[in-house]
Design goal:
The chain is α/β, with parallel strands linked by helices. Helix content is 24%, strand content 29%. The chain is built from eight helices and 15 strands. The protein is globular and about 55 Å long. It starts with a strand and ends with a helix.
Length: 255
């Protein structure tokens, strides 16, 4: 099992904070944001990790993370010890495009994908440990499902579809079919790369990770689990960074 961190994007929602740096390098609590998904993957038992970012800040990630062995500057605690590889996404093309870039890295191994700005109270280790076949995604009930990819369930409660930003990106639906938003932690078998290779860009010109998840659902190979504990999107608004930092200090993270 290998890991992928998606750490690209311009993060214009964070306004002036990302004018000269990547959002994943911004402080959240005591650490740069990117430390948290790296720690999460280590808690899951992943050793080899690929980090994909844009060309503008690739050097900054290498300066910060080096080979993946990072020791705290105070006290000498090992924060994480990973075998870290880097790739550059030359221009934005969607999360699915980034996952596709991990094909040669993953080979025939299973892949755990974490968005670099998604933070979790718990590492979801039990759910991932029980993952065997097909794809596994995690959902959280949200008050604004129109801003997310959400799960549609059939009358028996089984996953029937994944809908990306209903009425805007996915125009088949006027409104979201549920409040269960798919969060930025995905587990894929090697077949994911064949699915991505067959994708067409969406109406916004990107390869959508929702289309990947929808294909696994169509095949009856998509397992959906609810997130244990809290989940936050660190790239949503500048004010959230301080709030998430306080939350981490209160409850801990990646437990």
């Amino acid at each position: 099992m290998k890991g992928l961190i998606c750490a690209g994007g311009t993060a214009t929602r964070l306004e002036e904070l990302t004018r000269v740096t990547n959002k994943h390098l911004l402080p959240v609590g005591r650490w740069p944001m990117v430390y948290y998904p790296l720690q999460l993957l280590q808690r899951l038992g992943v050793r080899e990790v690929l980090l994909v970012t844009g060309k503008q800040h690739a050097g900054d990630f290498i300066d910060l993370l080096g080979n993946g062995h990072v020791v705290a500057r105070s006290g000498g605690e090992t924060l994480f010890d990973l075998d870290l590889t880097y790739k550059v996404q030359v221009e934005a093309g969607g999360i699915a495009q980034v996952v596709g870039m991990a094909s040669s890295f993953a080979h025939d191994d299973r892949l755990v994908v974490c968005l670099g700005d998604n933070l979790f109270e718990y590492a979801q280790a039990d759910a991932v440990a029980g993952w065997q076949d097909g794809a596994l995604v995690f959902v959280k009930d949200v008050p604004d499902p129109e801003n997310f990819g959400v799960v549609e369930y059939d009358d028996a409660g089984h996953v029937s579809d994944i809908v990306e930003k209903a009425g805007v990106v996915d125009t088949r639906y006027e409104r979201p079919p549920s409040n269960d938003a798919v969060v930025g932690l995905y587990c894929y078998p090697p077949e994911v790369f064949d699915i991505i290779a067959a994708l067409a860009p969406s109406s916004r010109g990107e390869l959508e990770i929702t289309d990947v998840n929808r294909e696994f659902a169509r095949r009856g190979q998509l397992d959906v689990r609810r997130v244990e504990g809290w989940w936050r999107d660190g790239g949503k608004h500048w004010d959230d960074l301080a709030e998430v930092g306080r939350l981490i200090e209160e409850t801990g993270v990646n437990k």
